[in-house]
């Protein structure tokens, strides 16, 4: 139980840091910020294992989690821009 709470807290902090480091307007609420950080950690872990940086069972570090969250924010920004452009079309 504590492990899940810890993951959410660290994910939230990683999400906040990613939102602060990535320029632009990122309107995300509390829950989406935590989801962004946790998903960024999973993304960093997946990429790290694919490139051989982490072994199976290892987890990405905090810095890698923030970088993963920034990558997700960039992807989200592209999708949001495309959707807004398609509406004006």
Can you offer a commentary on this structure?
The protein has 89 residues and is an all-alpha fold. The chain has one domain (2-88). Helices cover 76% and strands 0% of the residues. The chain is built from three helices and no strands. It has helices at 2-21, 30-50, 62-88. The longest helix is centred in the last third of the chain and has 27 residues, at 62-88. It is globular. The protein starts with a helix and ends with a helix.
Using brief descriptors, characterize the structure shown.
89 residues, mainly alpha, globular
What is the secondary structure topology, with strand pairs?
Blueprint: H1 2-21, H2 30-50, H3 62-88
Helix pairs in contact: 1-2, 1-3, 2-3
Brief overview:
With 89 residues, the chain is mostly helical. Helices cover 76% and strands 0% of the residues.
Terminus-to-terminus distance: 48 Å
Total number of beta strands? 0
Radius of gyration: 14 Å
SS-derived structural category:
mainly alpha
Shape: globular
The number of helices is 3
State which percent range the strand residues make up: under 5%
Strand/helix succession: HHH
């Amino acid at each position: 139980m504590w492990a899940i709470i810890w993951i959410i807290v660290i994910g939230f902090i990683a999400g906040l840091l990613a939102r602060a480091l990535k320029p632009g307007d990122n309107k995300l609420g509390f829950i989406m910020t935590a989801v962004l950080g946790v998903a960024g950690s999973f993304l960093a872990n997946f990429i790290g294992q694919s490139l051989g940086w982490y072994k199976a069972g290892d987890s990405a570090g905090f810095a890698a989690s923030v970088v993963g969250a920034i990558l997700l924010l960039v992807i989200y920004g592209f999708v949001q821009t495309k959707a807004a452009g398609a509406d004006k079309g």
